[in-house]
Design brief:
The chain is an alpha/beta fold. Helix content is 46%, strand content 12%. The protein is built from 15 helices and 10 strands. The structure holds 3,5,7,3',4'-pentahydroxyflavone.
Length: 336
Amino acid sequence: MTADDSLITSRDGRIGRILLNRPKALNALTLPMIRACTRALLAWADDPHVHAVVIAGAGDRAFCAGGDIRALRDAGVSGDQAFVDSFFAEEYALNLLIATYPKPYLALIDGLCMGGGIGVSVHAAYRVATEQAAFAMPETAIGFFPDIGATFFLPRLPGELGTWLGLTGTRITGPDAVHAGFATHFTPRARLDDLSAALARDGVAALAAFDETLPGFSLAPHRAAIDRCFSADTVSGIVARLRAEDADWARAALQALGAASPSALHWTLRALRRGRDLTLKQALDAEFALTRRTMAHPDFAEGVRAMVVDKDRQPRWQPARIEDVNPAEVAALFSD
Ligand code: QUE
């Protein structure tokens, strides 16, 4: 638990429950929430009465919209590197704890699930998505890169789906997220409370009766073209291939890339390609090193200002154009 109930833990039948409880802030993860979540998981790992852990978000708008990037921006701007380091180190340690947890960990994902919300769900064995779920890794829009282990899991999605999602920040629905690999089960929102109760009674065995037939993969018609465009070696190469496609999905991708931080696009592509050959632990360690360097770039403070603080959605990126990003400066961020 946290002092302000922003994260509520409880025991219920055979399971331990974690409720992300900042609904007005779309359950975005604060450092106290990360700490309380870690504490509960460590305590339950050795508790013979807890057979599984179930995490969910309060309210019907979001599972979790990400990390508390407003606090991160404030700390970055005021030079509080200790807070920034603690936040990312403890968040990524929690991501790894979930991936290696000795008991079943199950996320009920209804509403928005982005960034840090994906970090506390995608590494688990069981991820149930509803038709109201919306998954995205939108960090390039705030001058950041897909972290929380995304440089491990995005390159492992089918074909170049992960490169497309990580660079453009495109939102996908719950059913599409199951097809893509973000989620493992599909249960309609109308049955989620019943599933939650059944889990307390029967443990994860309850899942089978709630896993409903998936609608088709709405992205299937674009899979080949996504792979063709997003397998290019450079951001400019991807843009050139998208321009050659005469399709709405490609125009939407170009628009997203045009709005994103040009520097962040370069960091992201490089980090995703590197992540193909890393373990989750190595990827998280490499992401941590990269957070320190990318947070020092003006685009993070500017991106959070434009998208979350002032909400004018008019970030002034430095540089403003993809072709003006200096490759040597990008390479320097990735040096040991
Ligand atoms: C891109 C992002 C994030 C975002 C908006 C973007 C993100 C994030 C939040 C967010 C949302 C609600 C909150 C909050 C943060 O918004 O990662 O504190 O209350 O966490 O365009 O990557």
